[in-house]
Structures are given as structure tokens and as C-alpha cells.
Amino acid sequence: MISIIDQYKPVDLENEVDYSRLIKLGKDFFDVNARIEFDYFAYLKDSTKLSTFEIPEEYKEIFIPRTNPAAFWTYDSWLLLQIEDYMKSNFLRAKNVEVYKAIKENFTKWATTKLKNEKEYYANNAINLIERDVYKQNFFKYIINGLILLSKPGNYNVNKVLLCFETARDLTQSSRLSDNIKSELTYILTLYIGFAYLRDNAPDTAATFFKQALDLKKPAITAKLYSALTEVMTGNTNNAEYYLNEIIAYDFSRLVLALKINNLGMFNFFLKTGFFQNVFTEMDFYQVSDIIEKIVHQHYYTSGSSLENIRNKIEELKKKNIKEYLTAENSNRIVMLEKISQLYSDSKNTFIVGMNTEFENKFNEIIQGLIDQLKENLNNEVNEKLSNYERLLTENLNSEKYTLNEMENFKLRSKENLAKNLESIEENFNTQIKLIEERIENIPFMEKYNPQRSFSVNMSNNFIIAFIVMIIGAFAGPSGSPFEESSVLGGFFSGLISTGIKWGLISFFVGTLISLIISAMVLIEKADQKQKLVRKINYYKKQKADSLNDARVYSEHKEKVTLENYNNNLVQYRKNIKDITEQRDFEKEKLSTEASEKIKVFQDLLAPLLD
Q1: Could you point out which of 7, 512, 528, 566 has its C-alpha 20 to 30 Å from the C-alpha of 420?
Q2: What is the rounded CA–CA span in Å between residue 422 and residue 551?
Q3: Residue 15 lies in a domain
Q4: Is the pLDDT of residue 146 over 80?
């Protein structure tokens, strides 16, 4: 049967000579009574509050004492809940669920009972159930088995303990747990391995694993405490001092955080569960009592706590007319300081006395907050009174900006419109000129202005007329007796020869002359028409140039008049801006002076509280 050792007992007073200084330091400076067993289960119960605090994870570390490492698994921490969820999904089949529940139940009862017989009974039950669990990947059973063996009284088999913890650590690393759970669990198992070597009186080896743990988690305060312990055991007091300073600084940082966010519950918890206080439950630290005392005095004020003085100041402050300057944040600060001063004004605890500067700074923040709120109120009043000036100034500034934009837009539009007008004028006149040029080009192809065609037509007509004249001349010549047919015909031919041909030729020559004259006139008319069209082109070109010039002149005139109007408006707006600014600045200076006087009076009223 396996017997289970008791948890570490209070110090044996008959053999505490070497420890007296350490015990006295704990009692005098941290209210730690080494004669009373540390109630780790109460600590774990209080630690459940950590999950409700909205603070960085680095401030949520839970201390794991080597005197009772198994207790950590007796409460439903976030780590245990995550591990159980993982086990349900990967290890625990339906038939194994009851076995696990029985293991956990017996383990919990073993860890929590103080009766030796019950411890032995529950330990044996747990180990028997573990041996029945054939699932080799279940790292959690190795943790439980190792913790029970670590606490076994009498002959201590460190190899069995190490095998359990190292197996659990290896299985954890190869599991599909999330990285943060792996890291946390590996950190705890590394601590357990260090505890195993400590119990085996191998502080050098234990120190190696505690230093490994430091690299697995930040800030790893539990590992730092036991690193300090092993450094003491191995005579490296300088290293021990370094770790102890780190631990007490961490404790103060948590208290400062709680004070900063005005959380009294958090402050009380951090005060009650400071890591540095555990130094006084490890009697081997007696060897560096002088170092511990030096560290304590670095944070301890011989004048004691300043909370009583702060409480009196708060009472005096509440008597003054400050309600209208109280913000929710400042009210919370006052309530926080007031409650702390009520609870701890008589405390000699180093964590309280060492917070003197922070308490005083907190009170100064209250005073500064009141002054800042007064400044804000007065500033709002000044701004309210100046709002009309600001409104007028804004209107004129906006008008100035709008006018400048309009000027730029007008210039662009004017330029665009002028370009369009010029283009339109160019296009219209060029079209007319092009039509006339086409007419000039077509003149040679017009029958009306073709002298050859005119001469040909006139000569055709001339030939016909000459022929007719010749016939008429033939009939008009000498003739014979009308009664003789031969006389008539002979007279015709005789007249044709003697008279018709003559007059026909005369008519032909006259017609030819006329045709030549007409052809010459056609040539003259053709040239005249071309000159007319050329003059018309020149006229249109002059008209185009005049129109383009008129368009430019009109555009320039319009732009000049419009810009003058804009500039006149700008001059007026800028004058308004200057006048309003001067009036506003004058009024602002006057109001600011009045506000400064009120602030000075209020500061003088609160000044005695800052002494």
C-alpha cells in the first residue's frame, strides 16, 4: 500500500533558531505568519477571480507551491477545462468516461483531504484506475500519477516521478493541443520536474529546469521564485537577489495596475496573493535574510503608510465645492483611495507602505483631474461665448474660399467658352470661304463661262442665219416673167448667185464677228466673276478676323468685369475676417484672463491638500 505524506506543516518552533529572522521579516513586513499553514485551496478559490479581470494575461499567473503542487488541478481553471475538452474529443470513449471521472474524483479527494488514512485510500484508488487506463497517449494520467508519487512519504523514487512528468511533457508536445495550452502545460510540467529534483536534494539539477521554465512563459514568477531558492541552496546569492527583486517588482506592478483602473477587488486579491510573500514559507531563504531585508527596505518607508494622511485629505476635499468638477473617472479614483485608506491606513505591510508614492500620485491625479475639469468647463464657457465670432469667421472664411474657387472656375469656363466661340467663328467662316473657293474652282467647268462653247453655239446660229439670208437674197434678186416656170427658177439661181451669196457671206462674216465679240465678252465675264468671288473670300476673311477679335475683346472685358466683382467680394470678406479675428482675439484674451484667475483661485484652494 502506498502512503501519502502530509502537506508541509508549520515550522517546528523548537528548531527554528536559524529561521527566526526570516520569520520575523515575513511577519513584520508582510503579515505572513509562518506558524500557520498556507491555505493553498483558499488561494485557488480566490484565484478564480482572475478570469473575471480584464487585464493582460501576464498579470494572471497563479502560484504553484512545491508543498502542494497537486492542488492546482482541483479547481476548474481555464487550463483544466481546455484539457478535459481535448481529452473528451481524443482519449475518452464512452467506456472510458466513467474511468476518468473516477480517477479525477479520487485524485481530488486525495489532494484535498488532510487525513492520512483517507489520503492513502484515495491515492491507491487513483493509481489503480490509472493502471486500468490503457490509452498510452493520455498525458493527464501521467501528471496525476507523478503528483501522487511526488508526495509519497518514506523512500522516494525520483526516477519514477521524473518518468511520469517527462512522459506527460513529451506527449503534450506531440499532441494536437493548441500552442498556448501546450506552452502553459509544458511550463507547469517543467516546474514539477524541478520540484522532483528539489525533493531529491538536487538543487543544481532543479535549477536547470526552473531556468528552462523561465523561457516557456512570461513572466514565469513561480519559476523565478524557485530559481531564487535553488540559487540560495547552491550559494549563488547574487542571482537569488536578482530573482527576488523581479518577484517583488511584479507584485507591485499588479497592485499599481489595480490602483490605476480603480478596481478594489483586484487590489485586495493582488495584495493578499503576492508572490513575494511565499518566500517566507520556504525556510531555506533564511540564508539570505539580509538580502531579503535589503530588498524590503528598498520599498519600505520608515514613516509608514501615507493612507491616513490621504484619507484626511479626501475628507477635506469632500468639504469643498467640487461637485461640478467631478467626472466619473475622478469619482472612481476618490472612492478607490477612500476605501483603500479605510481598509489599510494602519497596515505595516510592505505592499501598502511601498505604494505610498502611487497613493500620493493617485490623490494628485484627483486634484489635477478637478483642475483639468474646471479648465475644461471654463474653456467650454469661453468657446460658447466666442461661438458667434467663430461662426461669423467660419462663414467669411468659407465665402472667401468659395469665391477663390469660383474665380478659378470662372477663369477656366471663360477660357473654354472663348475657345469654343473662336472655334465656332473659324468653322462658320471657313465653311463659307470653302464654298466660294469651290465655286471658283468650278468656273472653268461652267458652260456659261466657256468661250469655246459660246463661240461654237454662236457660229452654228450664224451659219443658219447666213443660209437664211442667202436664200432670201436669192428670191429678192432679178427675175423673169412670172408666167414662165423656167424664168422663175432661173431667176432664183441668178439671184442666188448675184445677190444671195453676197448677202449670205456678209451675214456670215457679221455673225462671225458677233460670235467672236460674244466669246470675248464671256471671257471677260468669267474673269469678272472670279474676281467677285475672290473679293468675297477676302471680305469673309476680314469678317472672320474682325469677329475673332471682337470675341476676344468681349471675353476679356467680361472676364475683367467679373473678376473685379470677385476681387471686390474678396476684399470685403478679408476685411470681415480681419475685423472678426481682432474682435474674437480681444474677447478671448479677456475671457481667458478671467478664466485663469478662476483657475488660480481654485488651485490656491486645493494647494494645501498637495503639501
Answers
A1: 566
A2: 7
A3: no
A4: yes
